C-alpha cells in the first residue's frame, strides 16, 4: 500500500509468486479474477489496494480472500463526523468512511455479479485492533504506538476498509516489496499528547478514548450536524510526509 501512482506500471514488472503459476483451470480462474479486480483498482486510481489470500493463513481464517481499499487523509476534515439520514434513519460517519464505503460497495458488487459472497467491513475511527491485525498481515506497513496502521508515505493518516469474500484470489501486490519495519523507535509523541490518557506504552484503552472524544467539551462544531472530534494521535505523528497536516491547531 505504498504511493502507487507515482511510478509507471508495466505488466512485465509483475512477478507472480510460483504458487500461483500452476497451469490448471482453478489457478487460471484465480489469476483472471485477481487481475480483473486489480485492474479495476488501478483504473479508479484507488490509492491503497492489497489482497490477502486467506488460503495461506495458518489460523484465524475469516474468509477465502480479503480485499483492502483505502485513501490517504490529506485533510483532517475527512475525519469530521456527520449525521446522515438514510433508509434506516440517522447514522453518524466520517467523510473518509463514506468515500471508502463507496469503493467497497463497487468491488463487492463486481464479485457478487460473478457469484461470490462478500461482507463489507468499515473499521472504527477509534484505534481498531481487530482491523490492525488484518492490516499487519498484508506486510505493507506496521501498527504504531498510537495503535494506528502506518504506511510509509501516508503515515497513520489513512483510512482503509476491506471486503471478506469467498472468491479465490492471489494475495499480495506484485510490484512492490514487502514493508513492515516499525519506525516508531524512541518517539513517544502520541503517548505524551493523547489528551484522553488512552494511549500508554503498555496499550490502548478504548473506553478512555471514547469518553474523551464523545464529551462535547472536547468537540468542535464545524457546521450543523458536523463535528470534529479528537484526532491528536493522527495529527502529531511525524511519519508520512505526504499527509502532514499543516498546523498544530489542526488538533482539537
Ligand atoms: S489522541 Fe484522541 S483519538 Fe487518539 S487515542 Fe487519544 S483520545 Fe483517542
Ligand atoms: S507519534 Fe511517534 S510513537 Fe506515535 S505512532 Fe507516530 S512515530 Fe510512533
UniProtKB/TrEMBL annotation:
Q: Which keywords accompany this UniProt record?
A: Iron, Iron-sulfur, Metal-binding
The GO terms describing molecular function are: iron-sulfur cluster binding; metal ion binding
Against PROSITE patterns, the record matches this protein to: 4FE4S_FER_1, 4FE4S_FER_2
Q: Which SUPFAM superfamilies match?
A: 4Fe-4S ferredoxins (SSF54862)
Q: What is this protein called?
A: 4Fe-4S binding domain-containing protein
Query: InterPro entries in the record, alphabetically?
Result: 4Fe4S_Fe-S-bd, 4Fe4S_Fe_S_CS
Q: Which residues form the 4Fe-4S ferredoxin-type domain?
A: 175-204
Metal-binding: is it a keyword of this entry? yes
Organism from which the protein derives: Parasporobacterium paucivorans DSM 15970
Q: Which Pfam families match?
A: Fer4_16
Amino acid at each position: 500500500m505504498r504511493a502507487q501512482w507515482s511510478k509507471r506500471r508495466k505488466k512485465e514488472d509483475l512477478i507472480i509468486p510460483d504458487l500461483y503459476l500452476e497451469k490448471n483451470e482453478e489457478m487460471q480462474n484465480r489469476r483472471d479474477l485477481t487481475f480483473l479486480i486489480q485492474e479495476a483498482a488501478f483504473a479508479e486510481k484507488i490509492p491503497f489496494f492489497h489482497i490477502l489470500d486467506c488460503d495461506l493463513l495458518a489460523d484465524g481464517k475469516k474468509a477465502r480472500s480479503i480485499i483492502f481499499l483505502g485513501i490517504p487523509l490529506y485533510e483532517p476534515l475527512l475525519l469530521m463526523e456527520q449525521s446522515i439520514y438514510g433508509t434506516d434513519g440517522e447514522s453518524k460517519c466520517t467523510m473518509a468512511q463514506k468515500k471508502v464505503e463507496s469503493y467497497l460497495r463497487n468491488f463487492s458488487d463486481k464479485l457478487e455479479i460473478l457469484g461470490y459472497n462478500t461482507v463489507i467491513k468499515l473499521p472504527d475511527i477509534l484505534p481498531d485492533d481487530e482491523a490492525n491485525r488484518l492490516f499487519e498481515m498484508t506486510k505493507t506497513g506496521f501498527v504504531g504506538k498510537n495503535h494506528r496502521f502506518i504506511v510509509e508515505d501516508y503515515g497513520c493518516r489513512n483510512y482503509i476498509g476491506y471486503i471478506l469474500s469467498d472468491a479465490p484470489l492471489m494475495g499480495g501486490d506484485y510490484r512492490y516489496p514487502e514493508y513492515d519495519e516499525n519506525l516508531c523507535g524512541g518517539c513517544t509523541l502520541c503517548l505524551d499528547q493523547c489528551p484522553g490518557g488512552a494511549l500508554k506504552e503498555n496499550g490502548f484503552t478504548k473506553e478512555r478514548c471514547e469518553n474523551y472524544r464523545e464529551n462535547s467539551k472536547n468537540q468542535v462544531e464545524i457546521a450543523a450536524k458536523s463535528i470534529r472530534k479528537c484526532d491528536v494521535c493522527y495529527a502529531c505523528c511525524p511519519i508520512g510526509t505526504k499527509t502532514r497536516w499543516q498546523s498544530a491547531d489542526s488538533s482539537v
